[in-house]
């Protein structure tokens, strides 16, 4: 049988506000347990929530970023359930009327093709605290620092057809929220978490199959692995003639398998109802317009500009615009170096990203700054150094810091461009290589092209790599006749 | 001294006839001596009260006294008071020392008011007789075999017995006005949003409203000046200017249009109560008011709708009492589920549990539309009835409660008959309007209240209309014999 995979994602994004969504407590990550929990976060008797305007603005930004309708009057609702790290016994969320309505986002697949994914809605809600089950001798500890951190829950349409598409979608959302500056998107700290809804149906079938939801996946790599593990499990079930039961599952990284947490029958009845402590949230046209004016250049706009103004290829533009920090880095290199954007693009996307990948780092934590790399590329562009020497200097910058100019100066790496000096070296090489010269002169044009490499290599070696390779070629061609 | 109104005490303090410390000592002594027979206080804060009184006297010497500096009052035990037990009359919060002050308490403290203690109430404000308190029922000072009404029964009884010159209360479905009526005092429920709910332990958030419980309308006006106002900590409080509620107290009532809803005078109204109310209305006519017959056709839906909306909100509001962070926790829980079940099962009383069950049911998947949504629609109808009525009248009058104080235990086993005690008050909460109950006479030697309902934020007019009546009558000045 031939199966079609249907995937929808619910992405939770922590909004980068200074204070919590309904209280004045700080949202900083990593403080001592319960030091960032106010009376409101503790759910003390008699306390009331007051909505953080910055969280609203960030949600509106997201809505505009996905070209969605902003709900003029959205409503906060209480989602009721008991859990020790949920202090009030309910989570303030949005249910029937979310702040952001239907929108869409474009994803880029590995083969370079693009696809539009629908975003059903995005709503504001508060995060819960954390239950700590270790170190308490059979009891549980509760840390409420995270309780009340503003979240934007972004719900996609079931538009994805493979784990790879789901990852591309998650990356597109990640890129967008960083572009908009509404979240750091740091998945390792839980600033962005994915719930993946997966179902299978026979190819050609209109009706969706029964879905299972993989909860709380915390890296792009795991999104792909978890979904593939789930697809494999569901396919086995269906192939064996069993039916899929709706369920919530967790992905076990070590076993590379998904496990059911609870079935639909055991699911909570959350008893949603409008929170009487909060008035309906009105977002006026004026606020929307102000936010719209302050919107930064978004990924698709940036790709277009990179191609039109900087003459980058579609591929380079997409790689560099995928992340706002990376794009800013690239543009700084262009500005600092004054070099052709294509040369800068190569250095950023090949040399720098390659090194970062190899060392498991990302652009935020690059040991070489955009200014440093710009200084280096500048010296390639103005022929002070060759590309080969530049790689050597890059390594030096990576390991020990400093500037390209300092390293060139200190190590005497400046490229030799004095014709007389290069001629002297070439003469020396010719004098030392009588056999090779004879062989060269006897050869036809085709063979000569291969044989000349020897002389170039010797000249470069003798010049300690500093001779300008183009000039070496020219002078050799002139002298070997 | 204890039969004086807040206004008279304020004057006496200003004239130097008495000090706040003397006054406070006097009321503390009365509480010690007389409250065992009334049970109106859960906590008496003697030490703090005397310290506050001392500070108030010093403030007066320094020339910084306000109109209320140094007068003592009591707070319903639903308001959080920093460092003092705040129990909501529940076993659940018997061990709860509030770590902060409610805005109402904070504002009163800022005005220099002295807090005598925390008054008894129905558990979590759920009740109309003050019999659901974990600390035992409050007795009606007029007849200690009778209930004082509820849920602010402790505040009402304390003021009626002159154990405190005034008190704060809260009103979700009549909890200020009904006990005020049954105890022969003045009780004002302001417009929803007029007084901050911050620090007031929530029963039904969309209905709860704090207000003053006093001997006179003038005293209520004085307290409203201290209590009312926008609070950035309460998103449902309204940001409109607070008038000086004492300014218009004496305005003549010529031309005042009083609406008399026929639904408030039908079956179910005690004959003695009805007569007292009719006499009061007749007096208003003499004072220059005109009477207008009106209809509030959806009145009969107010109790059923209220008993969906209020328990629904309560079921969620009371979820935080789970034995995890504060309040009662059961002994030796086996696991999390056992901790929840037994802490809540043992910590809450019967009426509270009943309402949590009703509310949980009403919000459940599959029932939400039929109950909660329907009830919200009914609420809209009730509001429309009032909006329509106020096109033609300035105030609406009728009984506060269908009966005077009933016997302790009489309705305790019949929740529906108990719920009907609030038939005339509940619709006012459902619409969010202000209402006041003032003493208008006696029926079988028990006080009867007249209810006056006003338009949104028209508290000044309600106080004016009530004050003029109190200038002509002395029902408000009557004190039950045992407490003179």
N-to-C CA distance of chain B: 10 Å
Can you list the strand order of the major beta sheet of chain A?
5-6-9-1-10-11-12-13
**Largest sheet: number of strands, sense, barrel closure of chain B:** 8 strands, mixed
Give the oligomeric state. heterodimer
Which structural class is indicated by helix and strand composition of chain A?
alpha+beta
CATH architecture of the largest domain in chain B: Alpha-Beta Complex
Unreliable segments of chain A (pLDDT under 50, ≥5 consecutive)?
none
Q: Note the total helix count of chain B.
A: 15
Spell out the key features of this protein.
heterodimer; A: alpha+beta; Arc Repressor Mutant, subunit A; eight-stranded mixed beta sheet; B: alpha/beta; Amidase signature (AS) enzymes; three-stranded mixed beta sheet; 15 helices; 11 strands; about 35% helix; about 15% strand
Describe this structure in words.
The complex is a heterodimer of chains A (481) and B (484). Chain A contains 15 helices and 15 strands. The longest helix of chain A has 20 residues, at 220-239. Helices cover 41% and strands 19% of the residues of chain A. Chain A has helices at residues 53-65, 163-180, 220-239, 285-293, 299-308, 314-321, 324-337, 341-358, 370-381, 387-400, 404-411, 419-432, 434-442, 445-462, 469-479, and strands at 3-14, 73-74, 76-80, 90-94, 103-108, 114-126, 130-132, 141-143, 150-156, 192-202, 212-217, 247-252, 257-263, 273-274, 281-282. In chain A, strand 12 (247-252) and strand 13 (257-263) form a beta hairpin. In chain A, strands 5-6-9-1-10-11-12-13 form an eight-stranded mixed beta sheet. Chain A folds into three domains: 3-290, no CATH class; 297-411, no CATH class; 419-479, Arc Repressor Mutant, subunit A, CATH 1.10.10. Chain A is of the alpha+beta class and 481 residues long. With 484 residues, chain B is of the alpha/beta class. Chain B has two domains: 6-256 and 392-483, Amidase signature (AS) domain (Amidase signature (AS) enzymes); 300-377, no CATH class. Chain B is built from 15 helices and eleven strands. In chain B, helix 9 (302-317) crosses helix 11 (350-363). Chain B is globular, with a radius of gyration of 21 Å. The model of chain B has no long low-confidence stretch (mean pLDDT 97). Classes of the chains: A alpha+beta (481), B alpha/beta (484). Chains A and B meet through loops of A and helix 9 of B.
């Amino acid at each position: 049988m031939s199966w079609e995979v249907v995937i929808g994602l619910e992405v939770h994004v922590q909004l980068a506000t200074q204070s919590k969504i309904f209280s004045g407590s700080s949202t900083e990550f990593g403080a001592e347990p319960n030091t960032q929990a106010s009376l409101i976060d503790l759910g003390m008797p008699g306390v009331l929530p007051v909505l953080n305007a910055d969280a609203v603005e960030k949600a509106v930004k997201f809505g505009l970023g996905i070209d969605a309708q902003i709900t003029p009057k959205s409503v906060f609702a209480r989602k009721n359930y008991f859990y020790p790290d949920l202090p009030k016994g309910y989570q303030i969320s949005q249910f029937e009327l979310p702040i952001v309505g239907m929108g869409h986002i474009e994803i880029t697949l590995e083969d370079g093709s693009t696809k539009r994914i629908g975003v059903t809605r995005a709503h504001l809600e508060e995060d819960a605290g954390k239950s700590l089950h270790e170190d308490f001798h059979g009891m549980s500890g509760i840390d409420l620092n995270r309780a009340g951190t503003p979240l934007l829950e972004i719900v996609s349409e079931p538009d994805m057809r493979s784990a790879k598409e789901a990852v591309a979608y998650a990356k597109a959302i990640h890129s967008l929220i960083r572009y908009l500056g509404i979240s750091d998107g740091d998945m390792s700290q839980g600033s962005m978490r994915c719930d993946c809804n997966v179902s299978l149906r026979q190819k050609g079938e209109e009706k969706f199959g029964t879905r299972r939801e993989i909860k709380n996946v915390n890296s792009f790599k795991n999104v792909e692995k978890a979904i593939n593990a789930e697809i494999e499990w569901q396919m086995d079930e269906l192939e064996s003639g069993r039916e899929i039961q709706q369920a919530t599952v967790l992905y076990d990284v070590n076993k590379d398998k998904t496990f059911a947490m609870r079935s639909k029958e055991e699911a909570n009845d959350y008893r949603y109802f409008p929170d009487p402590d909060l008035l309906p949230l009105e977002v006026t046209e004026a606020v929307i317009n102000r936010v719209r004016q302050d919107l930064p250049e978004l990924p698709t706009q940036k790709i277009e500009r990179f191609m039109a103004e900087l003459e980058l290829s579609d591929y380079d533009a997409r790689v560099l615009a995928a992340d706002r920090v990376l794009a800013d880095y690239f543009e700084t290199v262009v500005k600092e170096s004054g070099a052709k954007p294509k040369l800068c693009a190569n250095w950023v996307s090949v040399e720098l990203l390659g090194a970062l990948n190899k060392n498991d780092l990302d652009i935020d934590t690059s040991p070489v700054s955009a200014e440093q790399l710009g200084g280096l590329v500048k010296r390639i562009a103005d022929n002070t150094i060759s590309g080969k020497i530049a790689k050597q200097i890059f390594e030096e910058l990576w390991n020990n810091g400093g500037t390209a100019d300092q390293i060139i100066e200190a190590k005497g790496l400046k490229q030799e461009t004095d014709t007389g000096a290069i001629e002297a070296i070439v003469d020396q090489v010719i004098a030392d290589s009588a056999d090779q010269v004879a062989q060269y002169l006897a050869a036809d044009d085709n063979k000569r092209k291969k044989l000349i490499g020897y002389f170039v290599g010797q000249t470069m070696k003798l010049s300690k790599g500093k001779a300008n390779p183009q000039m070496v070629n020219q002078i050799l061609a002139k002298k070997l006749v | 001294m204890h039969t004086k109104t807040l206004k008279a005490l304020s004057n006496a303090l200003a004239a130097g006839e008495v000090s706040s410390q003397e006054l406070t000592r006097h009321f503390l002594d009365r509480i010690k001596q007389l409250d065992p027979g009334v049970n109106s206080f859960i906590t008496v804060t003697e030490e703090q009260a005397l310290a506050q009184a001392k500070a108030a006297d010093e403030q007066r010497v320094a020339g910084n006294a306000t109109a209320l500096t140094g007068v003592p009052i009591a707070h319903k035990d639903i308001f959080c008071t920093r460092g003092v037990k705040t129990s909501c009359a529940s076993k659940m919060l018997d061990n709860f020392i509030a770590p902060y002050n409610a805005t109402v308490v904070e504002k009163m403290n800022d005005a220099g008011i002295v807090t005598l203690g925390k008054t008894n109430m129905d558990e979590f404000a759920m009740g109309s007789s003050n019999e659901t308190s974990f600390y035992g029922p409050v007795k009606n000072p007029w007849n200690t075999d009778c209930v004082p009404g509820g849920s602010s029964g402790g505040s009402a009884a304390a003021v009626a017995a002159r154990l405190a010159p005034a008190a704060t209360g809260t009103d979700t479905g009549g909890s200020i006005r009904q006990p005020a009526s049954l105890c022969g005092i003045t009780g004002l429920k302001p417009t929803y949003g007029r007084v901050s709910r911050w620090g007031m332990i929530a029963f039904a958030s969309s209905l709860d409203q704090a207000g003053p419980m006093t001997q006179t309308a003038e005293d209520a006006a004085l307290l409203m000046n201290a209590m009312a106002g926008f609070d950035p900590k309460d998103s449902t409080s309204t940001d409109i200017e607070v008038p000086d509620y004492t300014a218009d107290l004496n305005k003549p009532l010529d031309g005042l249009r009083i609406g008399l809803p026929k639904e408030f005078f039908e079956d179910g109204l005690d004959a003695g109560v009805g007569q007292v109310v009719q006499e009061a209305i007749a007096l208003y006519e003499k004072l220059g008011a005109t009477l207008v017959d009106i209809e509030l056709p959806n009145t009969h839906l107010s109790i059923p709708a209220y008993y969906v909306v209020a328990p629904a909100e309560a079921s969620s509001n009371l979820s935080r009492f789970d034995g995890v962070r504060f309040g009662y926790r059961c002994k030796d829980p086996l696991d999390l589920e056992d901790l929840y079940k037994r802490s809540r099962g043992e910590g809450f009383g019967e009426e509270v549990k009943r309402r949590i069950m009703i509310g949980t049911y009403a919000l459940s998947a599959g029932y939400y539309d039929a109950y909660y949504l329907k009830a919200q629609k009914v609420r809209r109808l009730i509001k429309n009835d009032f909006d329509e009525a106020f096109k033609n009248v300035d105030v609406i009058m009728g009984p506060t409660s269908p009966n005077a104080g009933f016997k302790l235990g009489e309705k305790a086993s019949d929740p529906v008959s108990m719920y009907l005690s609030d038939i005339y008050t509940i619709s006012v909460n459902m619409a969010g309007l202000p209402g006041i109950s003032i003493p208008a006479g006696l029926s079988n030697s028990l006080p009867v209240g007249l209810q006056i309902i006003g338009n949104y934020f028209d508290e000044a007019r309600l106080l004016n209309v009530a004050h003029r009546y109190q200038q002509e009558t002395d029902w408000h000045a009557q004190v039950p014999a045992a407490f003179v």
